[in-house]
């Protein structure tokens, strides 16, 4: 745990001020270089505008690893002041248990319905008339990242879609370049969903992620996804994997790996490393094949603090909730994070080429992501299956399809 220094000694009048500075612990799972730089922007604005101290509590392991820790603390009576958390079943159970703060009155004067770019983002935050979380960005897994340097080495243009990319693998292997870079652990979990969207289409995504239709998993469209996963494991193996997705970004910039499927938060790490889209790498939304992105975003929740908590800490909660969705904080955070802001009323002319592509697709609506429709237990089962499939060639495509269908059948 670390504390970001208080930047301003006097709080500004933007959100009112506390009688004296309070410390507010904020938990999240943003631990890569780009993610850490982005969350620091929120911390700076919070401290500058309130005089309070942001106490940073980063948890490793992304959502599937961090969520159980966050949930355990809240249920166990040791809640943090604010926490990043995926909207979905886990959060809903905490709301039903009366452990999350209703933010309706906190943001009542902000008219949030008028500036959220997609109202579907707020739907998972609403429960029985209350508002229990605030989406602070729009993220999507649906990106194919390609290395300019790798394709210069083989004398080929950078592919413009998934099919061209797959066709380039033999030339890349002959040149000693890894066709697909991959980090160990959770980053494989998003790959099938991206393939579902790009290869299977929007109907398949909705059938599986929203409707939990196991028959769709056993159908011909999902089989294309399974076969693409089989293709991927033919060019990667556990001994080729690197520790983190940020390391894959470095491989792309160096031309050591040609491509990667990963969420748009990779853009933050590429930016920190000095990469420029269109020059050092290319980013293809929906594999260059589709016109919609799956996605939702990161949301912040504010647990109900124990009886006897210093009122200044509760006020700091209120101030942070409002700051996270303010124009200033939204612009500063998302320009570093690589995600799309939730506001429609801020100037995005400075957004890089990848974000501009994403903004161009927002008008087509967002497809439901499995991160938000499925419980963390179901997501963990899928992640385990995907990791096992990549590592073990003896698991056939048929086996993979059937095991995936079984998970969907049992999903709550």
**Continuous helix count:** 18
Query: How many angstroms separate the termini?
Result: 34 Å
CATH class of the largest domain: Alpha Beta
Strand content: 5-15%
Q: Roughly how much helix do the residues carry, as a percent range?
A: 40-55%
- Which class best fits the helix and strand makeup? alpha/beta
User: CATH superfamily of the largest domain, called what?
Assistant: Periplasmic binding protein-like II
Main sheet strand line-up:
1-3-2-4-13-7
* Total individual domains: 2
* CATH architecture call of the largest domain: 3-Layer(aba) Sandwich
Radius of gyration: 21 Å
Main pleated sheet? 6 strands, mixed
Number of strands: 14
Q: Give the rounded overall mean pLDDT.
A: 90
Q: Given the C-alpha coordinates, what overall shape results? A: globular
Low-pLDDT residue intervals, each spanning 5 or more residues: 1-19
Question: Keyphrases for this structure?
Answer:
globular, six-stranded mixed β-sheet, alpha/beta, about 400 residues, disordered N terminus, about 45% helix, D-Maltodextrin-Binding Protein, domain 2, four-stranded mixed β-sheet, 14 strands, single chain
Can you tell me about this structure?
The protein has 412 residues and is of the alpha/beta class. It folds into two domains: 2-139 and 296-342, Periplasmic binding protein-like II (D-Maltodextrin-Binding Protein, domain 2); 143-294 and 366-410, Periplasmic binding protein-like II (D-Maltodextrin-Binding Protein, domain 2, 3-Layer(aba) Sandwich), CATH 3.40.190. It is 44% helix and 12% strand. It is built from 18 helices and 14 strands. The strands form four sheets. Strands 1-3-2-4-13-7 form a six-stranded mixed sheet. A four-stranded mixed sheet has the order 9-10-8-11. A two-stranded antiparallel ribbon has the order 5-6. α1 runs antiparallel to α14, α2 runs antiparallel to α17 (376-391) and α7 (191-200) crosses α8. The longest helix has 18 residues, at 33-50. The chain is globular and about 65 Å long. The two termini are 34 Å apart. Mean pLDDT is 90; it is low at 1-19.
């Amino acid at each position: 745990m670390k504390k970001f220094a208080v930047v301003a000694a006097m709080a500004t009048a933007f959100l009112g001020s506390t009688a004296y500075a309070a410390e507010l612990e904020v938990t999240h799972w943003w631990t890569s270089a780009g993610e850490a730089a982005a969350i620091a922007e929120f911390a700076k604005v919070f401290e500058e505008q309130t005089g309070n101290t942001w106490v940073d509590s980063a948890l490793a392991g992304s959502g599937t690893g961090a969520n159980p820790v966050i949930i355990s603390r809240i249920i166990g009576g040791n809640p943090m002041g604010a926490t990043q958390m995926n909207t979905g079943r886990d959060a809903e159970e905490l709301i039903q248990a009366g452990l999350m703060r209703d933010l309706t009155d906190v943001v009542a004067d902000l008219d949030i319905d008028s500036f959220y770019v997609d109202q579907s983002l707020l739907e998972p935050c609403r429960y029985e008339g209350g508002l229990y979380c605030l989406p602070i960005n729009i993220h999507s897994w649906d990106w194919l990242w390609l290395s300019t340097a790798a394709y210069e080495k083989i004398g080929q243009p950078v592919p413009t879609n998934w099919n061209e990319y797959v066709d380039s693998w033999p030339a890349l292997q002959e040149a000693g370049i890894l066709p697909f870079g991959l980090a160990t652990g959770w980053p494989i979990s998003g790959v099938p969903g991206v393939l579902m969207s790009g290869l299977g289409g929007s109907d398949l995504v909705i059938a599986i992620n929203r409707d939990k239709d196991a028959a769709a998993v056993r159908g011909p469209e999902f089989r294309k996804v399974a076969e693409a996963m089989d293709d991927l494991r033919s060019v990667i193996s556990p001994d080729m994997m690197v520790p983190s997705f940020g390391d894959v970004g470095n491989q792309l910039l160096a031309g050591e790996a040609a491509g990667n499927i990963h969420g748009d938060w990779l853009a933050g790490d590429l930016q920190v490393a000095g990469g420029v889209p269109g020059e050092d790498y290319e980013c293809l939304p929906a594999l260059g094949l589709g016109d919609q992105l799956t996605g939702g975003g990161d949301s912040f929740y504010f647990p109900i603090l124990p009886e006897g908590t210093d009122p200044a800490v509760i006020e700091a909660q209120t101030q942070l909730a409002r700051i996270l969705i303010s124009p200033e904080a939204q612009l500063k955070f998302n320009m570093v994070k690589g995600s799309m802001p939730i506001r429609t009323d801020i100037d995005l002319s400075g957004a890089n080429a990848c974000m501009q592509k994403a903004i161009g697709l927002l008008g087509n609506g967002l497809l439901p992501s499995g991160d938000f429709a499925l419980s963390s237990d179901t997501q963990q089962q899928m992640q385990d299956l995907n990791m096992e499939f990549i590592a073990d060639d003896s698991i056939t495509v048929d086996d993979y399809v059937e095991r995936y269908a079984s998970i969907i059948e049992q999903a709550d």
